[in-house]
């Protein structure tokens, strides 16, 4: 009891000493030193403040009475003097710019960069809902100071708020501003490589976190006074990833590496003087995963997807407008290119309608809904499309993938798919056992099962698309168990095998009939 009350009273004494500015003659050693130092500092501050105040007062009077030429001269001199005495440089990034107060891109990039830095290092964070209300953003507090280090150089960032009014009779608004402070010795490093680093990182973070969109152009979607764009958009939330793709592991890895290399090659494309774009041609039977692969690519690179319906494009001018409007990180998809453009002029109606039957079946499986049948061909010419792909984006900047899909690669004009236009040709084919195992893991969370051996054997004997496997693996009721789903896959494959056998038999009978018919014809001709 005694001890504790003693401590209390001594701390109270110290406080009262500091408050009354009385020298603690009775206190000893370090305490006396500290109090003396504090005393001196208070005295120094008081002197300095009064000197500054006096100077400011005199300065304002002098300024008011000096001719303006002299005043300018003095002000310049003062500016040089303060910048000589103050070794620190300050760069401001204002939130709103120009007469129309649009948000500055540099400000947004700095904000993204600092928010990430803050969320990685700081112990006190501010959480806000992002603009699209889908994710939480961790932000800096006002007058929060963050320290960053770049190649051994220290810099400081401060967030300030500026109150302003657009015009004198307008209500007062607030805008934010990030200030970057650094020693003038490092001016070159900071204004050169550091700011470039901040902008690049910030833009990348923003691209990763922004809500991506799926854009489509349809027949009625033309520009009007009320419409800003020829594209209509919805939020792109396709769950496909490379992990869930039933595909050869090697092929998968190759595509992933190709995509990453492309997305990091801005400098390379600039150096060789080519547009930063890459063409992919995906081909294979319906239901083998062409559309799913496109979604996985968009998710991997965080790109927007533009589903370009060529049959709805009136002419080349409209095509140009559509392509110019695409965002800087995007995949432009033209599905079933052989049905959209008259590439050969020889396509028969019959084989297209049989394609559409199979297609529609798979669209139901994938839940995509049936696309409008592409019976009409576009007025866009092949040369128009190629010219835009080759030339237009060189001027626009940004990274773009163009993906064409087809079920009939053999029908495409070789000029359309030559290297440089379609840089990578990817075949998607029927399901093999590795592909099946990926689907079984996706749909049933199974890595092995006693029925797998039978399925492997059947996959070697017959062809089935991943879409058909997926359809059968999908539990139809809540009580559907793995055994039931796998039995359905086996049943579907046995049916496909029987159909194959029947088809082959039919083909060999008709071949035999044709040969005997030919023989009879020759006999008749002879006689
Ligand atoms: N390789 C695959 N990996 C995983 N799922 C697949 C694969 N192929 C097909 N699927 C499944 O089948 C459905 C239909 O596939 P998708 O639409 O991608 O095929 P497609 O080749 O684009 O067909 P189409 O040529 O008819 O457009 C998908 O939603 C997906 O569930």
UniProtKB/TrEMBL annotation:
Residues passing through the membrane, by range: 42-62
Cofactors demanded by this protein: Mg(2+)
Biased composition (Polar residues): 18-28
Matching SUPFAM superfamilies: P-loop containing nucleoside triphosphate hydrolases
Entries under PANTHER family matching the protein: BCS1 AAA-TYPE ATPASE
Keywords of the record: ATP-binding, Hydrolase, Magnesium, Membrane, Nucleotide-binding, Transmembrane, Transmembrane helix
InterPro entries per record: AAA+_ATPase, AAA_N_dom, At3g28540-like_C, ATPase_AAA_core, ATPase_AAA_CS, Mitochondrial_chaperone_BCS1, P-loop_NTPase
Sequence similarity: Belongs to the AAA ATPase family. BCS1 subfamily.
Protein's name according to its UniProt entry: AAA-ATPase
Keyword Plastid: no
Catalytic activity: ATP + H2O = ADP + phosphate + H(+)
Location of the region described as Disordered in the Swiss-Prot/TrEMBL record: 1-30, 349-376, 504-527
Any one GO BP annotation for this protein: response to stress
Ranges of biased composition (kind: Basic and acidic residues): 351-376
Pfam families recorded: AAA, AAA_assoc, AAA_lid_At3g28540
């Amino acid at each position: 009891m005694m001890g504790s009350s003693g401590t209390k009273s001594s701390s109270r004494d110290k406080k009262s000493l500091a408050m009354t500015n009385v020298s603690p003659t009775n206190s000893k050693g370090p305490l006396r030193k500290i109090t003396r130092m504090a005393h001196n500092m208070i005295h120094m501050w008081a002197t300095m403040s009064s000197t500054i105040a006096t100077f400011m007062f005199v300065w304002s009077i002098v300024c008011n009475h000096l001719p303006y030429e002299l005043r300018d001269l003095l002000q310049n001199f003062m500016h040089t003097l303060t910048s000589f005495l103050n070794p620190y440089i300050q760069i401001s990034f204002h939130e709103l710019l120009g007469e129309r107060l649009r948000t500055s891109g540099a400000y947004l990039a700095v904000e993204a960069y600092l928010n990430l830095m803050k969320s990685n290092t700081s112990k006190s964070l501010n959480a806000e809902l992002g603009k699209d209300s889908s994710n939480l953003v961790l932000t800096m507090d006002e007058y929060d100071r963050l320290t960053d280090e770049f190649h051994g150089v220290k810099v400081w960032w401060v967030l300030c708020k500026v109150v302003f009014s657009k015009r004198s009779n307008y209500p007062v608004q607030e805008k934010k501003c990030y200030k970057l402070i650094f020693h003038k010795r490092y001016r070159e490093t900071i204004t050169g490589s550091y700011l470039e680093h901040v902008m690049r990182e910030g833009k990348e973070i923003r691209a990763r976190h922004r809500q991506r969109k799926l854009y489509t152009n349809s027949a009625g979607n033309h520009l009007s006074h009320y419409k800003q764009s020829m594209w209509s958009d919805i939020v792109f939330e396709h769950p496909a990833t490379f992990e869930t793709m039933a595909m050869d592991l090697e092929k998968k890895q190759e595509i992933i590496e190709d995509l990453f290399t492309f997305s990091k090659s801005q400098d390379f494309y600039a150096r060789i003087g080519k547009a930063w774009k890459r063409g992919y041609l995906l081909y294979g039977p319906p239901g083998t995963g062409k559309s799913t692969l496109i979604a996985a690519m968009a998710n991997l690179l965080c790109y927007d997807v533009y589903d370009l319906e060529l049959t709805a494009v009136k002419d080349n001018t409209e095509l140009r407008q559509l392509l110019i409007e695409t965002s800087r990180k995007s995949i432009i998809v033209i599905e079933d290119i052989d049905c959209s453009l008259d590439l050969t002029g020889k396509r028969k109606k019959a084989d297209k309608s049989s394609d559409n039957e199979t297609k529609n079946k798979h669209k139901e499986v994938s839940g995509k809904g049936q696309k409008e049948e592409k019976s009409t061909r576009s007025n866009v010419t092949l040369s128009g499309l190629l010219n835009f792909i080759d030339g237009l984006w060189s001027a626009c900047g940004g990274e773009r993938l163009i993906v064409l899909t087809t079920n009939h690669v053999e029908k495409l004009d070789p000029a359309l798919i030559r290297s440089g236009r379609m840089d990578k040709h990817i075949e998607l084919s029927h399901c093999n056992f590795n592909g099946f195992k990926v689907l079984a893991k996706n749909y049933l969370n199974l890595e092995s099962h006693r029925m797998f051996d039978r399925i492997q054997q059947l996959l070697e004997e017959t062809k089935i698309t991943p879409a058909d496997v997926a359809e059968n693996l999908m539990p139809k009721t809540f009580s559907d168990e793995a055994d039931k789903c796998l039995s359905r896959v086996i049943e579907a494959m046995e049916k496909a095998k029987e159909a194959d056998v029947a088809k082959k038999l039919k083909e060999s009978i008709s071949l035999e009939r044709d040969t005997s018919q030919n023989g009879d014809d020759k006999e008749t001709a002879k006689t």
